[in-house]
């Protein structure tokens, strides 16, 4: 009977340690969520923004040169507004997932570590009142500090194991959805939005280049000013295009990294080493998010 | 009405864009050769130039809509996983609280041996605080 219990305890400890020290890259994947939360809405919101800018350009063309409304040159921005909102909502789902994964990885929600530290300090600071048994109080202090230290170590082991177990399960469960979602966001954010920006560039060319080509030599100073305005608008548009490309790169990198994490969970044995090997991918994702943040700033 | 895939819609958008850009260049070349901006043919060319670009954007937008509609199931799955993560975190938070209460009781036990009512009272208050947080 006793032998059976010993075997059970031994197995329990083995399982407890199976989850040790493996949350680093899961945390890093989630750690980019804050940057994404700032930068992604700048891109998704601009699908509507681009449409509004095109509509504004048409409205500024002098009436004698402007095609009639029936020509279909003024965009209807209703669909763009709806797509922007839907894209933004999907981005929120992705970042919320990464944030929750990160929280499981870091254990930032669990302040017991600080509390235990304060408790040890409190016990060490106890003074003995007159008439009390100093020796007994001293023994009690030592026992309490030992108990608190042991509590901390056991709590670390247990919570770390639970967090690792939950994070691994979630990575596996969410992976198919994350793959489909990141692929769609890449398509919309890079390809579709890219076409919108290229069309907006066509509107800019029509709006500026026509009057610039028609300008007389005596209008040189006005032409210089218009040229500067045109250059500024084109520059802003090119930055938006660069942001769209980075957006697509970020989505692809999240997809690849998440798939690698899921594969590492599936492989089981040697998980820690496999996850550590993902560090370069994590760095690349961090760099891509930083670039995206820079482009939308 | 035939339903197109996002990729087909993107390809149509790109073709419309390319033709629109070419028409725009035809207009600019004509203006460069001296045709006035308000010339009816130039106005018509501008209308065709912009409407093709606008149509291109509409197709790109439809491609986006198709892509986003197709991922509705995946979005639900990811949301479900996030909900599970939050539940797991809530469970761990309860564990965290239990650890803190347990630790504060150890401190209270040790404080009894000091014989100092002030220290015992402080430790007891800490137990209440940990239990209530």
Topology:
The complex is a heterodimer of chains A (297) and B (133).
Chain A: H1 2-18, H2 24-31, H3 33-60, H4 78-106, H5 112-124, H6 134-214, H7 220-267, H8 271-276, H9 279-296
Chain B: H1 6-32, H2 40-70, H3 72-112, H4 117-132
Helix pairs in contact in B: 1-2, 3-4
Q: What shape does the CA trace of chain B take?
A: rod-shaped
Molecular shape of chain A: elongated
Radius of gyration of chain B: 35 Å
Q: In angstroms, what is the radius of gyration of chain A?
A: 30 Å
Strand-and-helix sequence of chain A, N→C?
HHHHHHHHH
Q: Estimate the helix proportion of chain A, in percent.
A: over 70%
* DSSP strand count of chain B: 0
Proportion of residues in helical segments of chain B: over 70%
Q: Strand content of the residues of chain B, in percent?
A: under 5%
Q: Give a short account of the largest sheet of chain B.
A: none
Oligomer state of the chains in this structure: heterodimer
Quickly count the helices of chain A: 9
CA distance, first residue to last residue of chain B? 60 Å
Count the beta strands of chain A. Answer: 0
Low-pLDDT segments of chain B: none
Report on this structure.
The complex is a heterodimer of chains A (297) and B (133). Chain A is mainly alpha-helical. Chain A is built from nine helices and no strands. In chain A, α2 packs antiparallel against α4 (78-106), α3 runs antiparallel to α4 (78-106) and α3 packs parallel to α6. With 133 residues, chain B is mainly α. Chain B has four helices and no strands. Chain B has helices spanning 6-32, 40-70, 72-112, 117-132. The two termini of chain B are 60 Å apart. The model of chain B has no long low-confidence stretch (mean pLDDT 87). Classes of the chains: A mainly alpha (297), B mainly alpha (133).
């Amino acid at each position: 009977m006793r032998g059976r219990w010993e075997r059970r305890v031994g197995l329990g400890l083995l399982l407890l340690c199976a989850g040790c020290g493996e949350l680093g890259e899961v945390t890093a994947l989630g750690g980019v969520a804050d940057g994404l939360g700032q930068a992604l809405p700048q891109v998704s919101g601009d699908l509507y923004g681009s449409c509004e800018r095109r509509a504004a350009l048409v409205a500024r063309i002098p009436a004698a040169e402007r095609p009639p409304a029936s020509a279909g040159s003024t965009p209807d921005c209703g669909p763009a507004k709806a797509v922007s909102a839907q894209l933004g909502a999907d981005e929120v789902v992705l970042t919320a997932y990464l944030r929750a994964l990160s929280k499981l990885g870091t254990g930032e929600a669990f302040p017991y570590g600080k509390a235990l530290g304060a408790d040890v300090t409190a016990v060490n600071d106890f003074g003995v009142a007159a008439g009390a048994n100093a020796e007994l109080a001293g023994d009690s202090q030592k026992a309490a500090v030992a108990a608190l230290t042991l509590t901390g170590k056991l709590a670390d082991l247990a919570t770390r194991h639970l967090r690792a177990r939950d994070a691994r399960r979630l990575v596996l469960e969410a992976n198919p959805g994350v793959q489909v979602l990141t692929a769609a966001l890449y398509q919309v954010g890079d390809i579709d939005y890219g076409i919108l920006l290229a069309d907006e560039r066509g509107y800019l060319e029509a709006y500026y280049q026509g009057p610039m080509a028609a300008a007389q030599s005596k209008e040189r100073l006005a032409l210089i000013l218009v040229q500067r305005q045109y250059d500024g608008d084109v520059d802003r548009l090119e930055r938006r295009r660069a942001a769209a490309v980075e957006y697509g790169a970020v989505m692809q990198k999240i997809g690849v990294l998440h798939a690698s994490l899921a594969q590492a969970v599936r492989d089981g044995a040697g998980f820690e080493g496999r996850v550590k090997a993902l560090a370069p991918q994590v760095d690349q994702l961090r760099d891509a998010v930083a670039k995206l943040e820079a482009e939308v700033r | 009405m035939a339903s197109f895939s996002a990729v087909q819609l993107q390809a149509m958008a790109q073709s419309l864009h390319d033709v629109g850009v070419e028409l725009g260049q035809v207009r600019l070349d004509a203006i460069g050769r001296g045709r006035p901006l308000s010339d009816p043919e130039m106005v018509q060319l501008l209308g065709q130039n912009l409407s093709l670009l606008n149509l291109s954007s509409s197709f790109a937008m439809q491609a986006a809509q198709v892509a986003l509609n197709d991922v509705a199931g995946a979005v639900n799955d990811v949301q479900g996983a996030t909900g599970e993560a939050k539940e797991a975190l809530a469970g761990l938070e309860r564990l965290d609280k239990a650890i803190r209460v347990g630790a504060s009781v150890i401190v209270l036990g040790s404080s009894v041996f000091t014989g100092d009512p002030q220290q015992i009272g402080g430790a007891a208050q800490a137990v209440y605080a940990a239990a209530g947080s």
